[in-house]
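FAQ: What does a multi-protein file look like?

Like this. Sequence, then tokens, then the next protein.
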Amino acid sequence: MLLLLRAIAVVFAALLICLFGTIYSLIRFKNPSNVGVVARWFGRLHPLFGIEVEHRFAENASDNGPCIYIGNHQNNYDMVTMAYMVRPRTVSVGKKSLAFIPFFGLLYWASGNILLDRDNKNKAHSTMGELAQRINQDKVSIWMFPEGTRSRGRGLLPFKTGAFHAAIAAGVPIVPVCCSNLHNKIDLNRWDNGKVICEMLPPIDTSAYSRENVRELANYCHAVMKQKIEQLDQELANRS
């Protein structure tokens, strides 16, 4: 019964957000702050899933300026955990196929997110340069999931280098955002599904890196995030 009630509530709330978010985004068509507004609406849905989310922002996070945010991509619950971490004037990068999802697709496009053709590797690679250009011209930040896919309990997967190429080309820092482990921790038939911590880390300077050693930057950021996720998991385990 609880599962059914939750499903009804979540679908109803998501449809409302998609409806009003699309209207809002069409009025302010592709305004770079649309994404953050709508993302925070989704981020407030976590009580419907029986989870408590603690959001920790880095000191002076509002002063980050243009940057590339990278997050660990676990599963579909990221929409109600990490989504609240999206800062103003930040857009995300997603597959073109997202635009064809009923209700959500129009919202994703109209709010100003960037759609990539993941099947065309040459075009996707050149798009990193276009991302860098947009960052500098429009003074926006980009949110990316460098794993490239949901980890689904496999831990932090190896990073692809696209986000790091874009950061180096734009001359902007990388800002990691980490979420504690969610795998197999949410049972929609259970009233209380515990706590999740999402934490934004201080910016990582990219000025010492180039195309030649971009993999070093990706590996360093991976190590920083892996350590932080383990710390968050241990903190929650100690509390319980």
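And here is the next protein:
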Amino acid sequence: MDLEEKKVTIDVDAIKKEFPEESLVSNNSAKKKRFECEICGKSFSYKCTLTEHYYYHTDDKRYQCDICPCAFVKKSHMIRHYRTHTNEKPYVCKECHKGFKDNSGLKIHYRLHSNEKPYECDACNKRFRQKGHLNSHVRTSHTNERPHKCEICNRAFGTKWILNNHLRIHTNEKPYECDICKCRFTAKQSLNEHVLKHSNEKPYECDICKRTFTLKRLLREHGHRHSKRKHHECELCGKICTSDYKLICHQQAHARSQSLQCQLCNHSFKYLSDLRKHSQTHLIEEAV
């Protein structure tokens, strides 16, 4: 693919008339970001970067992918997208040797090793490694805002990437493939969780008993065993289960035990096989 810059025609004089020079050099006292966008207020260190930024407001996507219909405002975004077709990952982590398509992805990944969480929720002080994770947390935990709606089934989601993952359920698209067993997945997170099964890597450790788990969800469910709070408690017998799924299975056992009742002596059983064995004792008594 030729990644040379596509030739475009742009009326620079028209931009200067619409955005006067005075607005481009606001906050002269600032040492770094002196050039401010009159439309959204975002600031930039260089005037050429500001000029490129205006393309976002005009939705003029100058850079076209040669493989698919996707187009982009910035050349760097198009190059990064093109690597999804070539699977090129030139940015490699020095700690674990995992590769990434761009430098920003590598920087975010390093926070896993350093445990850096620079984004903090104003409501509950919970911290996150990525700004997108913080925004998703605020919408799902505090505001319950779901601005992204599926046009097929009308389900709404807090973030656009969750909606995109959901849409693949309708299209049956599975773009993420395991390099080891070639299994395909609709979401990248599902692939990452699957890969851990091959490597036997268990990065999530319990602070109390030091037991390790492949998934954060499994660690969270395990933590309920140490907690004094009663999570997922059965209303019939008081048993505490570690997850909603296990509680449902346990309650189904109650339902089976109530339905599988001997009609002769009113004994109840969890399993049909046990009821049949019990029924044989009545037949023996009658024969005697």
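Q: Is there any per-entry metadata?
A: Some entries carry free-text notes. For the entry above: Residues 1-10, 15-31 have pLDDT under 50 and may be disordered.
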